[in-house]
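User: Modeling request: complex.
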Amino acid sequence: MISFKNDYSEGALPEIMEALVKTNLESTVGYGMDEYCASASEKIKKRINRPDAQVHFLVGGTQTNQTCISAFLRSFEAVIGVKTAHINVHETGAIEATGHKVIAVEGKEGKVTPQDIRAAVEYHSDEHMVKPKMVYISDSTEIGTIYYKKELEDISACCKEMGLYLYLDGARFGSALTAEGNDLTIEDVAALTDAFYIGGTKNGALFGEAVVLLNPELQKEFRYSIKQHGGMLAKGRLLGIQFDRLFTDDLFFKAAIHANKMAMKLKQGLKECGIEFMEDSVTNQQFPIFTNDEIEILNRSFLFEYNDRIDENRYAIRFCTSWATKEEDVEKLIEAVKSMPKR
Amino acid sequence: MISFKNDYSEGALPEIMEALVKTNLESTVGYGMDEYCASASEKIKKRINRPDAQVHFLVGGTQTNQTCISAFLRSFEAVIGVKTAHINVHETGAIEATGHKVIAVEGKEGKVTPQDIRAAVEYHSDEHMVKPKMVYISDSTEIGTIYYKKELEDISACCKEMGLYLYLDGARFGSALTAEGNDLTIEDVAALTDAFYIGGTKNGALFGEAVVLLNPELQKEFRYSIKQHGGMLAKGRLLGIQFDRLFTDDLFFKAAIHANKMAMKLKQGLKECGIEFMEDSVTNQQFPIFTNDEIEILNRSFLFEYNDRIDENRYAIRFCTSWATKEEDVEKLIEAVKSMPKR
Amino acid sequence: MISFKNDYSEGALPEIMEALVKTNLESTVGYGMDEYCASASEKIKKRINRPDAQVHFLVGGTQTNQTCISAFLRSFEAVIGVKTAHINVHETGAIEATGHKVIAVEGKEGKVTPQDIRAAVEYHSDEHMVKPKMVYISDSTEIGTIYYKKELEDISACCKEMGLYLYLDGARFGSALTAEGNDLTIEDVAALTDAFYIGGTKNGALFGEAVVLLNPELQKEFRYSIKQHGGMLAKGRLLGIQFDRLFTDDLFFKAAIHANKMAMKLKQGLKECGIEFMEDSVTNQQFPIFTNDEIEILNRSFLFEYNDRIDENRYAIRFCTSWATKEEDVEKLIEAVKSMPKR
Amino acid sequence: MISFKNDYSEGALPEIMEALVKTNLESTVGYGMDEYCASASEKIKKRINRPDAQVHFLVGGTQTNQTCISAFLRSFEAVIGVKTAHINVHETGAIEATGHKVIAVEGKEGKVTPQDIRAAVEYHSDEHMVKPKMVYISDSTEIGTIYYKKELEDISACCKEMGLYLYLDGARFGSALTAEGNDLTIEDVAALTDAFYIGGTKNGALFGEAVVLLNPELQKEFRYSIKQHGGMLAKGRLLGIQFDRLFTDDLFFKAAIHANKMAMKLKQGLKECGIEFMEDSVTNQQFPIFTNDEIEILNRSFLFEYNDRIDENRYAIRFCTSWATKEEDVEKLIEAVKSMPKR
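Assistant: Request completed. Predicted assembly structure:
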C-alpha cells in the first residue's frame, strides 16, 4: 500500500534524526531552557526579522492552539475562525475546554475575510454575548488554499481597527510559504500578526511547533500557560534541536518545496486524466473527486482520507504529500488513475 | 559540570534511539492507531497480567495526570493527594484548569494513608463541598519513598470501601519497582488500582507515558479526553516504538536498576562522609543536607536542585540519578564531598 | 412610555407577592430543603404525572442551562442547538465556560429538526471531534414559534435512537403551552424529554426556574452542580413559595394565557394595519417589520427591542407581552400604528 | 423549635418587603440597568467615599466569589485564602470550576496574615507552579472573628508590595463593621482593598450582594463575567431596590447592630453559665462548646449547626443571630442552658 494519507506518516527528515542521535547523550537542563532551544529561537527571530519576538516550542498543534488561545483571552472572550477551522472542528472541543467560544464564520475558499470579522464583531454587541477578541486563521487552510499578501494585510488592518488579536496556525505553514503563486513571506506574517506558529510535525520534524509571540501583551508569562496545558516537554531540547536544524540551511523550506512539488505533479497528472478537484489547492493537500467505483479501485493500492461527499456517487478524497513522498509513488498513483475504466 | 539535576537531562537509551532510527522511514497511520502502539500495548498487558486493560500512550506526565483526572471525574468531584503531590504543587494548576479541586492531605513520608483518605471523605459531607472521588498517589513519591505492598493493599481496600478510584502516577515507577526493599510488583499495582501510568520520560525514553486503564468505567471514550487535552501525538507510533522497546528484554526495568544502583552508591558514599539526608529515599532521588558553604563548593562542579531550606545555614538539595548516570561521576561527587572542609 | 420591551419588566404576580409577604417572617431551613420547596416539587410532579421526577429550583435561565448542561455531559461531550438558541447566542459563552461546545444547527422556524440532529451526529464521527450527547430545544423558541406534539415525538425518538439526552428550555414554557394551536401538554413534555425547566421569571414570578429531571441518570448528585455554579439560593424557600403558588389554581397557566391573549390582540391589530411579521409567532413575542421612519415614531411612545435588520430601510422589532401587559396599552400601540403615515 | 441555625432563615426586613411591594408593578428595563440599581450604586459609592468605584449587584455569595475571582485572574493565577475560607471549603469547588487554584494558608484566628501571604508567594517561585495573584479574606471570618484596621492595613500593604489584588468577602460584613471593638470603617475597606462585596443575603435582604470594584483594572467589562456565570438577574431592579433601601437611613447597619446585640447577649448569658467557646467571636456567629448530653437537650427546642468536634464527648456548635432574632428567644436559650444538669 502506498500512503497519501497524511504528512505525518513517517518519522523525521534524516537531518533531524541525525541531529537527535548526535546530541543524544549530552546533558542539558530541562523544559526548554537549554542552549538548543535558545539557538533555534535566535535563528527563527533572525529569519523573521523580529528580534523582539518570543519563541516557544510545543509538541503538537491542538496543544499549541489551546495554549495560545487560552493564554491570550479573558474568560468571556471568543475567537473567530472559519467554519472548517481546525479549532472549530478537529480538536475535540479543546478551545471550549478552556472556556472559550469559537465563533464560526462562513469564510471564502477556507479563508476568513474582513467582512466576516466585521460582521461577527457587530453581531456580538453587548455583554449578553461573548466578546470577539481574536481571529484565528491557518495558512495553508484546511482545504489547501493559501492567504495572499493583500488578503493578510486586509485582515490585519481589520483586526487592528476592531481591537482583535490576529493569530495564524501554521501547521502547514511551510507548504503555504513555498506554494506556487504565494506572495507572502514569513517576515510579512511576523509583521502582520500578533502571534503565529511554525509547524514542524507536518513538515519533517518528529514533532514540534514553534510559537512566535510578537505582540508584547501576549508574551507575558506565557510559560505558565504552556505548563498548565501539559505542553512543557521535560526534554525540551528535543524541540530545540529539531527547530535549530530546520532553520539551518533552509531545511524547513526545502522540505516543504519537495512536498509541494509532489502535490503539483499529482494534481497535474490527475487533471490530465480529467479528474475534477473540490478546491484549487496549491499546497500539499489535494482534493480530487472520484466516483464510488473509482475509489474502490484506489483503495486496493493507496491510502488516503475521505473528505466530503459530493453526491451519492462521488466523494472528494484527500491525497496528502510530504517531505517523505516518493516521486515514483506519485507516478504510480497517476498511472492507476489513467488505467481506470472510462466513466 | 556534572549534572545530577534530573533524570531527563539526556536523550534516550541507545536501544530506543536505534529503534526510532530504524523505523524512521516506515509509513504508518497516525494518532496511535499503528502497529507499534498495538504491539507495545499487548506487551504491557501481558506483563501486568491484565488482558482486559486498555493502554494509551501520552507524551508527558502533567498532560497524563490532567487527561486522566479530567476524564475520570464529574465536574464537582475532587481528587485526594498528599500535600507534596505533583498535581498539587508542580503542575501550574493543570488539574484545577479542568475544573477539579485537589484535596491536599498531610500524608506520611510523602505517602497518602488510609486515615488521610477516610478523614477527607468524612470531612466532605454534603453538596456544599466538593465530593472526593479519586485518590492520587505516586510511586516513587516526590521525596523518593515507595509504597510497600501492604500499604497499597490498605489504600486500595479503603478506596473500594469509600467508592473512590485509585490512580497511581508512575513518573518514576521504574525506580520504585526496582528499589531496594520494594515488595510490590507491577502485577500487584495492576490488580490494586483503577488506573496508573508507566513513566517513560524519566526512565530512558525520549518522552512518553503509558496509561493503563483497568476499571472498565474509566476506559470508555478515553481517546476523546486525550485529544481534547492536546495529548494525541500525530506521529503516535513514536510512543509505540519506544514502549515496545522498553517492554522487550526488560529494558524498562534494567534502566531503572542502573539508576537505583547509582543512587545507592551515592547515598552510601555521602553517608560515609557523615552527610545527613532529609528522607530515607531508596530510589533515584536523594536529598542530602549541606551547609551553605558546602553547597557553594558543590556548585562549582555539579548541577543539582534545591529542595527545602532546613534552617538558615542548611539546605536539603536533590541529587537525581538515571539510566544515563556514569559511575565515575558518582565517584567524583563522593570524592568532592569527602574533600570538603570539616564542619 | 409604554413598555413592550420584555416579559420581565415588572415585579411579580400579586398572588406571588402576597405569598412572599405572608411567609416573610417564618423561619425555615435554607438551600431549598424547606417545606415550601417540597410542596412545590410535589405539585409539579403531580401536574406532570411523573412521581419519579426530581424537581430543583434555580434563580435564572442562563444559570439553569449552564448547571444542567454541565451536570449532564462529560468534558468532551457537546450539546446540539439551533443557531438562534439562547445557549448559542445570549449566554456570554456560559456553556463553553463549563467546557462544552454548542453545536449550532440551521433548524427550521427556530426549531431543531431530527434531520439536524442526525446530520450533526453523523458529522462528528470520531474522537478528533466533540461527541454530541444532548439536544437543547426551547419552547417557545427565541422567535416565538412552538413545538407541536408530533415534532417533539420525532425529536424524542431520534434522540433515543442516537443515544442523546433531550433537554427543553422552558423560559417561555407557559406561553408555549397555552398558545393558539398548541397540542403539546406538560405531561407530554415530561414523557418525551430527559429534563426540562419551567420558567418562572418570564411568567409572573419575581424570579425562578423549576428544573425537572426525568432520566434517573441525570438525577444523581444534581445539587452538587447547582452549588458549584452558584445557583443554590440561601433562602431557597423564596423559590418554593413562588412555584407552590404558581402551581396552585393553575396560576402559572393563567398568567401565560393573559400574555398570549395580549400578543394575539396586538398581532391581529397590526396585521389589520398591513404590517408584516418576520415569523408567524403564536406566543408572547411578536416580530413585526417596520420602516426606519415608522420605528422613529414608535420610539417616541413605546419601548421595544430591535431584532433583525431586514434591509436598509426596514427592521424586525420585538413586542413582548406578559402577565402584566395592560389591554389598553396594546390598544394604544395599535392606534399609534394605525395613525402612521401611509407608506 | 427556635432557630439559631442561620442568618438566612427568614425572608427580608419589613422595610425591604415594603419597598418591593410598592414598586412591584412599575415597569423598568432589565439586567440591572434600571434607576433603582443606579440609585443604590450612587448611595454606596457615596457611603464608601469612592465616586470612582463601580458597583454591581449579584444574587448570592458563592456566585459573587466565583464571578469576581474568575474575572480578576488569568488562567494560571491563583487566590490565597485561609484554610477555613468559604471559597476553599464551602463552595463545592466553584473557584476551581473556573480553573483557578485556591492556595490554602494556615492563618490565625480565621484570618490571613501578611506572613502567610509572603510565604505563599515565595513558595510559588516559577512557572511550574500556579502564580499567586490575589488574596481572599472575609470579614467577619468563617469563625466570627474580625479584621482590625491595623491588620487590614498590613495585609493591604503586603499585597501592594507583592503585586496581589486584595478582595474582601463581605457576606457578614454588616456584623463585622458594627461589632464590639471593631475599628474598621467601610471607607477604610474601600481605601485598602481592590474589590469587596457587601452582603445583603445574611443581613436582611431577601437576597443580594453588592460588589464594589475599586481598582480600575478590575472594572473593565465586569458585566460580561456576571452574565457568563449566570449571575445577571433579569429583574435586576429587585437587587437595586433592596440595596437602595439598605443604604437609606443606615438600615444595613441597624440590622447588623441588632444581630450583634443578640449575639452578645447570648454569649454573655452562656458565659455566665460557665460555657466555653471555641473562638472569641464578636459577631453574630457564636461557637459555644457543649457535651453530647447537653446537645441532646438543646436539640429538643433549638435549631443550630454542628461546627467542630472538640473531643469524643464535646462539640462546638454554632448559634447564629440575625436582624430577625427575637430577644425572647435568646432569653429562652440562656434559660435552657442555665437549667441544664450540672456537669
